[in-house]
Amino acid sequence: MKTKKRFISQIGQQRGFALPMTVMAIAGMMLFVVGSLSVFTLERKTARSYSHAARAEMAVESGLADAIATLSPIAAADDSLVFRVDDPDQPLIEAVGHQPSREQFFTFGARFDLQRQQWRVLPLVSGVKESHAGDRRIDGVALAHSLRMAHLPTIVSMNRYDRNVPRGAWVDVPESSATHTMRYAWWVEDLSGRLDGMRAGTEPRREALGPQEIQYFTLFDPRAQSKPAVSAQDRLVAQRTSLKTPAGTRLVLGEVDAAQVEPYISYQLPAPQRRVPLIPHGFGYADAGRPARNLSDLIAQGNVDEIAAHIDRNLPDFTNRRGAFPASEDYTKTIAASIIDFADADHDATVGSGYRGVDSYPFVNELFDRYEWVSTDLSQRTLTIRISTYVELWNLSQQSVRGTFQLTNINRHEIVIPLVGSRPFGTTTFPAQSVSIPPNGFVVKLCGERECVFPIGVFPPSELNFPATATTTSSFELLWNGRLVDTARGGLQRTAGNLRGGASQRKWKGNGSPAHDHSIGQHGDPRASHYINTWVYANDYDQNSNWGGRALKRGVHSSRPFREVSLLHWPDRGWNSTPGISASRDAVLPTALNLPANQPQMAPAWMANRPLQSLAEIGHIFDPAQWRDVELSSFAADARAGGGITLAIGRPEYAAFDREGRRAAQLLDLFALTPKPQDDLPRININTASREVLRCLIAGQELSRDPQLGPIFPPSHQAVGDRFADAVIATRNRAPLRSISDLNLIRLHPGQMRNYNNPQADTEPFFGSRLSYPNSSQPEDSWDDAGREELFQRVSSLVTFQSKTFRIVVAGQVLNQAGAVIGRKVREYVIEIAPARDEQGAIIPNQPLQIRTLLMRNL
């Protein structure tokens, strides 16, 4: 029995062990089955995920191809435009908490369609159709309206964290199947609107000849007048070669400071590239799209005819700036000659048939003849009158000049001899004299003496008389280094009076200034004497001569508009230097006076006499146009008017010329200078730059062309930089800038008419206007032409209107049949699209574009 029990007990134990093993085996099999099913399911899901990702990748590549195809016609030309249109509903998403502000805009390209003779406008964003925009300005307001009404409802954001919000409309990929839909959206940012991180700030501000001088310290402190001794900018410049993307600035500056610069800087701009400047479209220029003429070469050749012909061909209305300019003179050739003289090395006039250029040579400012009845010869029955001619020459420029002058005194005054009648004095050409004149200097010279012998009647006279009626037909001719540079076209008045014998009875006849009457547009500017067709009033020698300085006729009442040559009344403005010294009595010779010291810092004319550094410098050349009230809406052509104006380039255009086709700044569209290495560097696209980048264009820019005013820093008050940026943005939002001449027109309210008679800050062009500065730092009204135009010259050398380098954000999605997103990818590209060029930088036609990917990363 024991044995049986033991056996049964063993059997029970084996059965108790087998049951859990069986359960475990079954469970293991179930796990294996479930695991196998899970693996199979995971593999299927993984395969589908990879498939969705691959399709999203295909969508991105399709979007990129579409973007590049849209960009290519724009990047393939050097006469296209790239501009941005701010979101019409919300251009700026304000900062919230630690999230900085974000900009919302769309980039457009435009190329002139030669067949249709109008702009072809290409939206650089998916889902927005191209359009045409007329043959002149592109209507930015209409583009914004079209975006608002037709496209904004379908446009979506592609990246929530981008500081420049990328948005586009979805476009279906045609190859999508019945089970899924692939689509893409893309958005383009012009990187030429950003600072070049590899070059900006690497050189101090000087003449602003290249982007390496652009300072961006105002990104970190908008109120800064100049770069601090130690700045965040310096740290970025020092580390620039190790930075590849804007995000890398965080490692150098930290999150807070990097946030101030990251949206406005790029480290992927292309290498320097020589390009041929082209004449822009949109103005009706005959040579639009062709290379601008090399003005440096034309100046070196002294080629007046070709400069003038190029202007007349492209700006046929330009010659109508002349007003009452003499019909015998060629206005455009006169401008061309003065351009040559401004930039050539000598101080001599370029002269020819119908033109005379203005260089840094002197002009006749004052001319007097002293008459002395020295003897009577009864045996010969004659008398002798000695005429001594004194001239004052004025060098209006900031240059010292040395040369020879020769004066011809065309004296058509007469002397009346009793019983004999009137006898003329005639013309005298005096010997040439050498002279040196400092900047803004006045020199007084005795030209020479001439003795005239006249017959007398039966009875020797005791008194002679000048004609009872003043004469107005006398004149002069001044030669400088053998070339005729000055004359009194309208004549010189000579007054009546008597003449008795002896040194104590000498009489003076002459003029204390050039033609001068502010009420009729005469400003006492001797550069205009050659053209003003009315006689110059005679002046009393004792009281109203003013030797060695600015004309101030002390014997004339202060209310009269011809008492004082005041540069404050010149349309160009300028500083009133010390007046000259009056002789006070006939016995005093002008050469014996203690003349005032010259004041070079107040020179009214600025001459280069060296190769042009900036094309905008031609704004300093003298404009001989003849208008009364040239600044006001009441302007009128007047042959009596002239002087006091130069070409308004870098300052508000004068009312008489402020219309397309006559503006002086349009000359900048027609010419270019011999290229320099810095010209090949990437420049800031003024049409796409953000507000902060625009402020950087004038940050730390010292203006010193007006030495009397002292150095000016445009952002000496934060509002100046703000006003500049706001004027650019307001102007381009209304119509993108077509060329550098449009830059001269920027203002806060471009849609409103200028008030010429009472200029207002919001409607006056920004450059050269005192109203662009706050009251606390506003320059004086005497701020001269060179000072007013300096900032424009600096900025114009830093900007462009085209681009070849773009940041493209592309999003790709895969949707299932229910419309749910089952695959998504967002990628950022930096693309350079470069046409093939010859050695001179001209685009070679019919050659494939070179497309380079400078950066690619997933977002």
Which key terms come to mind for this protein?
859 residues, alpha+beta, 6-stranded antiparallel β-sheet, elongated, disordered N terminus
Written description of the protein model:
This protein has 859 residues and is α+β, with helices and mostly antiparallel strands. It has four domains: 51-192 and 808-858, no CATH class; 197-275 and 672-800, no CATH class; 293-348 and 615-670, no CATH class; 361-599, no CATH class. The chain is 21% helix and 24% strand. It contains 14 helices and 37 strands. Strands 18, 19, 20, 23, 24 and 25 form a six-stranded antiparallel β-sheet that branches. A hairpin with an 8-residue loop joins strand 2 and strand 3. The termini are far apart.
Please sum up the structure shown.
With 859 residues, the protein is an alpha+beta fold. The protein is 21% helix and 24% strand.
Q: Structural class of the helix and strand makeup?
A: alpha+beta
Give the tally of structural domains.
4
Distance between the termini: 84 Å
Count of individual helical segments: 14
Strand content: 15-25%
What is the overall silhouette?
elongated
Largest sheet: 6 strands, antiparallel
Mean pLDDT across every amino acid position? 91
From the alpha carbons, calculate the radius of gyration and give it in angstroms.
Answer: 39 Å
Helical amount among residues, as a percent range?
A: 10-25%
Low-confidence stretches: 1-28, 30-45
Number of strands: 37
